[in-house]
Amino acid sequence: MRQFPFARRLFTSLLSLVVSLSLVAAPAFAQAPPAFTGEQLDRIVSRIALYPDPLLAQVLTASTFPEQITDAANWADQHHYLTGQQLANAIQEDQLPWDPSVQALLPFPSVLDMMASEMPWVNDLGNAVLADRTGVMDAVQRMRHKAKEYGYLRTGPQIVVAGGPYLTIEPVNPEFVVVPAYDPLIVFAPPRPGFFVGGAIGFGFGVAIGAWFHPWGWGACRIGWDTHAIFINNVRWERTWVNRGVYVHPYPGIHRYVAANRIEHHELIRRSEAERAAARNGHESHEEHEHHHR
Questions:
Q1: CA 66 – CA 72 distance, rounded (Å)
Q2: Are 150 and 189 in contact (CB under 8 A)?
Q3: Does residue 103 contact residue 92 with C-beta atoms inside 8 Å?
Q4: pLDDT of residue 269
Q5: What are phi and psi of 176, to 5 degrees?
Q6: 269: nearest Cα among 94, 102, 72, 69
Q7: How many CB atoms lie within 10 A of CB 199?
């Protein structure tokens, strides 16, 4: 048989590289999964347990990428003036390198800001979702039942609360998702005599989620409480502690970008933002010019 020394050496070198990389990466993903008690899980989920199911599904999946939350929160804050189709376009144009589950929260800057300010909690939540999704969902249900039993959680103008063994919370308008504001120390404890339970959960902030956000799973995300499953884009989300290094959930309408480095990524975003600002200022100057000549 004819020999090809160069090809053989190249193959050997590549094989050695693959083995070396696997050995380097192995310790990070060979760690034993963390364990949480029921009481710990109750505490971890308490601040999001009363979120509407679609928003809760997106927060649970995004929490498994904690290293991306802070950058995403900063981007959302810098683009708070964008909504609807303009925001969706900006997300695509900036070629954001974060997982689509994190990008899905960009229309909710208050949620991302809350998560970015509590990174130890996000790490705990993400680890719990990956290692013990059943325990996480059971904890959410325990918290919901407490809030309902004490009279805090109820159907109202913004949400519909339904279900027997599994309590669901859905937006009244599926294309307008509200973010409830509440104190876990209040809504999961018996009310004090004379306390007005109807005002314990506020709904001052909501986001219109139209067809432009469907590529990120909005409109097709839900929780299967009876099977402890999360569905994004009507596909079961299967990321776990074991496969977290390789699992890629399908987002058909999203192109995944990988920046060469953080400097390149931030420079790309800076240029995109500068172009949008220039266009916005040009539009305003044109309107001012037209007004002056009227």
A1: 10
A2: yes
A3: no
A4: 52
A5: -135, 105
A6: 94
A7: 8
